[in-house]
Amino acid sequence: MSPGSGWRLLSDPRLVSLATQGLIVALTLFPAVAVARDLGPAGAGTYALGSRIAALTLSASSLSLAHGIAQVATNRGAERAGQAWASGLCMCIPQGILAIMLALVATKAASPHAPGEFTLLIVLAIPFQLATLVGAHVLRGSMYVAEFNVQRLLQAIVWAAAFGVSWLHGSKTLTDIGIAWLLTQIVTSLWVCWRVARKVGVHRPKFHGSLSFGLRAHLGIVSRDASSYLDQLLIGVVAGTSSLGLYVPASLLGSMVTLLANNMALTMQPQIGRAEPGQVRSTVARLLREGGIVTLPVALVLALSAQYLVPAIYGDMFVLSGKISAGLCLAAGFDAILVLSIAALLGLDAPGIATLVQLGTTIGVTLGYGFVVSEFGIAVLGWVAPVIFGLAAVGGLCSVAWTLRRASDDEAPSQQVLLVGEGVNE
């Protein structure tokens, strides 16, 4: 291998993003373990339920505008990306107010005993998260991979540092977590807005394009986010926060596989969107193949070691979590294939099909998890989850194959003639 080819490998956006994700996982593991060890299953469950509700209301109120902005940034150039970014910022205030109201009502209904200060602090961070989301997708769509990964890493560093200071020197309560989380989102959003303004400039808002794409993809993206949190929401509501506190550590190792897939999916959409005519099918096949080669072996290794790793990390109170975790890791491997399939569908400009695939998965998770937890408890989820997500992965791959058969390689999947250039922006 020549020095030039070695440097190209190290600067590959997927490899850079993967290394960034590894650091992020390491940084975010500390708060999760500290909460579980110090507060036990009940405290960890209350924290998890409140944060998941906030995340889901954030997704629901976003209108998936950020994904539409990424699509515009991929195909329309810097000025149009700047206009879409400005429109996204304008929407942050009304979207944030809506999300705060929804989150407060949902959290009070699902977890009436959660501390009021903790709930308020978590939901007040939502408008800043929306601003971060919009700016990050501008960077992603414009292939400013370094800036995009710095944003993700910065958020993890600030979160770990703020949590560490408040937890170690405070009273170790959920309110301390809320303060650290709000501070993290404020710092991250300010940094992202500054970097996007430097890269694409500040332009007059223009909603067309980004909003229409986002609305078409919104149901599928919300369904995707819902399926990521729906299992924990169902368990928290049906079985209680103590059961949720046992389930969250069980899902830890599997979530690493999902994060790995999400990381690879982040660059799939713009790579497929920029594919040369005649190369779309081969690009999709290559990216899916590479994603499977990376994620499936990791899922298998984690499944074999889960029952030993989880109690070693979280403590003896979480032995049951380790037994459940093995099956959840296998399910995460199938979920990774589903994540990559949906990213491929979005890159092929088929958000409607991606929505149907994800909606079917969400319905399957809702019915399957809801019945099993209510009738048998969380212990059998390790057997049920791989079946549900295995079927979902098959459906995702079949949908990609069907979309490719319908598409013509005579034009790019987004059917746009104005591209922003080749490669990664410096």
Describe the structure.
Helix content is 84%, strand content 0%. The protein is globular. The chain is built from 15 helices and no strands. The longest helix is centred in the first third of the chain and has 49 residues, at 13-61. It has two domains: 12-208, no CATH class; 216-416, no CATH class.
Features:
426 residues; globular; 15 helices; disordered C terminus; 2 domains; mainly alpha; single chain
How many domains in all? 2
Sheet with the most strands, sense and barrel status? none
Q: By helix and strand content, what is the structural category?
A: mainly alpha
Shape: globular
Runs in which pLDDT lies below 50 for 5 or more consecutive residues are 1-10, 409-426
- Tally of strands: 0
Percent range for helical residues?
over 70%
Number of helices: 15
Q: What letter string, H or E per element, gives the SSE order? A: HHHHHHHHHHHHHHH
pLDDT averaged over residues: 77
CA-CA gap between termini: 24 Å
Break the fold down into its secondary structure elements and pairings.
Layout: H1 3-10, H2 13-61, H3 65-76, H4 78-110, H5 116-124, H6 126-141, H7 145-169, H8 174-200, H9 210-238, H10 241-250, H11 252-273, H12 280-314, H13 319-347, H14 351-376, H15 381-406
Helix pairs in contact: 2-4, 2-7, 2-9, 2-10, 2-11, 3-4, 3-6, 3-9, 4-5, 4-6, 4-8, 5-8, 6-7, 6-8, 7-8, 9-10, 9-14, 10-13, 11-12, 11-13, 12-13, 13-14, 13-15, 14-15
In short:
84% of the residues lie in helices and 0% in strands.
